[in-house]
């Protein structure tokens, strides 16, 4: 008899329409309102017709089987309650036509940062701005064959793309033709139309079209974020007493907006009264499992609208809990809880669990501390070897001078001195790394040079700079205080030179301080003296190979300090009159004979 009933239920189950089994009907639009327009589902708080939407901001018009958001008059392509976005068709901006992007001020919408800004043009800089302040932009050049381009691959040739700022509500687009030596080409570029648009990055990266196709496009898909203000909650129904938070997880934000989702075990629309429901298919499966797992026949099954709400799993599944706990039903689930009268049990259980957890945490923390120390020691040893510690020792041993005036710093000391290498501490950036300003515990101000990347090929440059600077003691050469090799990237510690680079005073002059002719001659003489010392008076001749104004620092008395010895070269044989090296340095500052002959 039991098997016959099961067979009967299975036949009914298999005879249901596939779409009913796959997707139970849950309330998504407001009752008695149009639920779709064309192939787009209209989900509340959006709606078509009077009293079908939350407020005027979410009113939708259905024109020729296409939905349009009234407040901004854009076609709706998709409404999502999961991530609070709406996809709309947004206009393509054309430099040949007078058009402006949509303005979202005073609406609950803003442009999602999942969009990107794309410009289809060449020899052009397209930019976005707000109130005459630039927001973002991208530059594209021309290819040699006349402008063929594949969308989704816009990286600077005939088209370009860039990310947009967050919380963007309005912007203005401008096109700027790049300088071109060929006036004829420039006039030709001015005659061509240029295009710019925001577009959903996920869709843009999958399409394939040419620049000619863009010229025939008037709009593209754009994602908008939307939100509901907390004051609008009770306005969605005539039932003022409805509590939205009874079946939803709601999160309020600083701007007063609220995002709601159905709790686990429920589906539907969290912005409708009773919109979050347990799906009917789950209940049906639970009944089948109950019959299969039960030794007694239980067939009380009424499949109507009331079964789509929360059910009592404790009764349906005959749940048994360990005494003294009892089964209690919750929304969408169940659990074993102590009876409300058992306060002693709760206190004892809480104290026991607390003590047990405390001992467990202390033991885990003690073990973790030991393992962390061992791991940190091995990590520092690994970095010391990788950053050339052994090579540095070998290099220093090969010189008689050694690094008597320098010392090894530990990573914790330099991390604290630079406030964890804060970007506000950056003094400058060069070819080999970034320089940070720091202060040691004894009050000394230092400059810490941190390599950009861990590159085995540049390891020799770093070691070279340490070895060279450790031998130099000259008032016009920056002094090396020490180095740190136990970090992921090698660090050099110099004396702090407060007045920046000579390049700054030459190219960014201001009326408050001007370099007089006497000061210029003195600085030039000091640099020449430092080079003379390096070439002739040092224990081994040292050739800097990259002397330029950005590598000359000025101290508090505006005395010159030669810096950045990463590309320097030492000559061990003092009788050597000629040396051939790989050409290094900055083009424009190189000796012509050295550049030609190496």
From TrEMBL:
What is the membrane topology noted in the UniProt record heading this document? Answer: Single-pass type I membrane protein
The protein's location, in the record's own words, is: Membrane
Membrane-spanning intervals of the chain:
344-371
Q: Where is the signal peptide?
A: 1-22
* Domain of life, per lineage: Eukaryota
Per its record, the protein catalyses: L-threonyl-[protein] + ATP = O-phospho-L-threonyl-[protein] + ADP + H(+); L-seryl-[protein] + ATP = O-phospho-L-seryl-[protein] + ADP + H(+)
| Location of the Protein kinase domain | 421-598
Which keywords belong to this entry?
A: ATP-binding, Disulfide bond, Glycoprotein, Kinase, Membrane, Nucleotide-binding, Phosphoprotein, Serine/threonine-protein kinase, Signal, Transferase, Transmembrane, Transmembrane helix
Q: Name one Pfam family in it.
A: Pkinase
Cited SMART domains: S_TKc
What this protein is called in its record is: Protein kinase domain-containing protein
């Amino acid at each position: 008899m039991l098997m016959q009933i099961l067979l009967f239920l299975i036949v009914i189950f298999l005879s249901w329409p596939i779409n009913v089994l796959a997707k139970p009907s849950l309330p998504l639009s407001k009752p008695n309102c149009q639920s779709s327009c064309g192939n787009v589902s209209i989900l509340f708080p959006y709606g078509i017709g009077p009293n079908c939407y939350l407020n005027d901001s979410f009113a939708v018009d259905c024109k020729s089987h296409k939905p349009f958001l009234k407040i901004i008059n854009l076609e709706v392509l998709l409404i999502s309650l999961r991530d609070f976005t709406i996809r709309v068709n947004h206009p393509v901006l054309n430099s040949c036509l007078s058009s402006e992007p949509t303005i979202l001020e005073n609406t609950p919408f803003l442009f999602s940062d999942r969009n990107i800004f794309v410009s289809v043009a060449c020899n052009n800089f397209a930019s976005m701005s707000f109130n005459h302040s630039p927001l973002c932009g991208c530059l594209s050049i021309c290819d040699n064959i006349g402008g063929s381009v594949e969308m989704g691959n816009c990286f600077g040739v005939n088209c370009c793309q860039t990310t947009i700022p967050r919380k963007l509500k309005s912007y203005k687009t401008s096109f700027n033709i790049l300088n071109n030596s060929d006036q004829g080409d420039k006039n030709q570029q001015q005659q061509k139309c240029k295009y710019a648009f925001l577009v959903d990055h996920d869709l843009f990266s999958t399409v394939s079209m040419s620049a000619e196709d863009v010229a025939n496009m008037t709009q593209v898909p754009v994602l908008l974020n939307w939100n509901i203000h907390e004051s609008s909650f009770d306005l969605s129904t005539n039932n003022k007493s409805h509590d939205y938070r009874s079946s939803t997880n709601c999160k309020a934000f600083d701007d007063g907006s609220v995002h709601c989702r159905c709790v686990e075990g429920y589906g539907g629309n969290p912005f409708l009264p009773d919109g979050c429901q347990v799906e009917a298919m789950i209940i049906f499966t639970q009944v089948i499992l109950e019959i299969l797992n039960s030794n007694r026949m239980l067939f009380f099954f009424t499949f109507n609208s009331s079964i789509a709400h929360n059910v009592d799993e404790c009764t349906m599944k005959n749940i048994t809990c360990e005494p003294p706990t009892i089964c209690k039903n919750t929304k969408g689930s169940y659990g074993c809880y102590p009876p409300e009268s058992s306060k002693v049990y709760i206190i004892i259980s809480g104290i026991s669990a607390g003590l047990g957890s405390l001992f467990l945490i202390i033991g885990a923390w003690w073990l973790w501390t030991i393992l962390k120390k061992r791991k940190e020691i091995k990590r520092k040893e690994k970095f010391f070897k990788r950053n050339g510690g052994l090579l540095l020792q070998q290099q220093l041993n090969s010189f008689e001078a050694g690094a008597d005036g320098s010392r090894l710093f530990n990573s914790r000391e330099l991390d604290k001195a630079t406030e964890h290498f804060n970007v506000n501490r950056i003094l400058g950036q060069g070819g080999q790394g970034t320089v940070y300003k720091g202060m040691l515990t004894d009050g000394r101000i230092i400059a810490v040079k941190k390599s950009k990347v861990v590159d085995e090929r540049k390891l020799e440059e770093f070691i070279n700079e340490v070895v060279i600077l450790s031998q130099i003691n000259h008032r016009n050469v920056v002094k090396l205080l020490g180095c740190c090799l136990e970090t992921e990237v090698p660090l050099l510690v110099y004396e702090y030179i407060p007045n920046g680079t000579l390049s700054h005073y030459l190219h960014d002059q201001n009326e408050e301080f001007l370099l007089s002719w006497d000061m210029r001659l003195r600085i030039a003489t000091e640099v020449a003296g430092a080079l003379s010392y390096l070439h002739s008076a040092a224990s081994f001749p040292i050739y800097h190979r990259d002397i330029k104004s950005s590598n000359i620092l000025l101290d508090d008395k505006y005395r010159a300090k030669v810096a950045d010895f990463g590309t320097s070269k030492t000559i061990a044989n003092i009788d050597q009159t000629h040396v051939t090296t790989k050409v290094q340095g900055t083009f424009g500052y190189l000796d012509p004979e050295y550049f030609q002959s190496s």
